[in-house]
Design goal:
The strands form 2 sheets. Strands 3-4-5-6-7-8-9-10 form an 8-stranded antiparallel β-barrel. A two-stranded antiparallel sheet has the order 1-2. It is mainly β and 105 residues long. The chain has one domain. Helices cover 0% and strands 47% of the residues. A hairpin with a 5-residue loop joins strand 5 and strand 6.
Length: 105
C-alpha cells in the first residue's frame, strides 16, 4: 500500500523504501535502512548489514532495536504515527537517533 501523497515509485508498505539513521549513538545504529516487509500493520526497515531494525509496535510507537519485534535492553523509541523524526534512547542506549527519508553517505 502506498501513501497517496508522499510516496512515489520507491515507496512500499505505506512508508518510503529508504531511510537513514543519524546521531551519536551507542550502540551505533546509524546507517542506511530499507523497507523489508510488514509487521504489526506497518512496514518495517532493516539496516544494510541486518544488525538493526525500525518497526511499529502495533499500538502507538516506532522502535529502533537490534532485533525485529523485540526491544531488548538497548533501543530507541518514537511515540508518533510517523516513522520520521527523533527517537529517544531507552535502557542502556545513548544519544538521540534521527530517522529521515533517503540515504546518507
Amino acid at each position: 500500500m502506498q501513501h497517496p501523497v508522499r510516496c512515489g515509485p520507491f515507496c512500499s508498505w505505506g512508508i518510503a523504501y529508504r531511510h537513514n539513521v543519524t546521531g551519536t549513538l551507542s550502540p551505533d545504529a546509524t546507517c542506511n535502512y530499507t523497507t523489508e516487509g510488514w509487521l504489526n500493520g506497518k512496514g518495517y526497515c532493516k539496516r544494510a548489514d541486518g544488525n538493526f531494525y525500525i518497526w511499529w509496535d502495533g499500538s502507538d510507537t516506532w522502535i529502533l532495536s537490534a532485533e525485529l519485534g523485540v526491544t531488548g535492553t538497548d533501543y530507541w523509541k518514537r511515540t508518533d504515527p510517523s516513522i520520521l523524526g527523533t527517537y529517544t534512547p531507552q535502557g542502556a542506549a545513548t544519544g538521540d537517533a534521527t530517522v529521515a527519508e533517503g540515504t546518507h553517505p
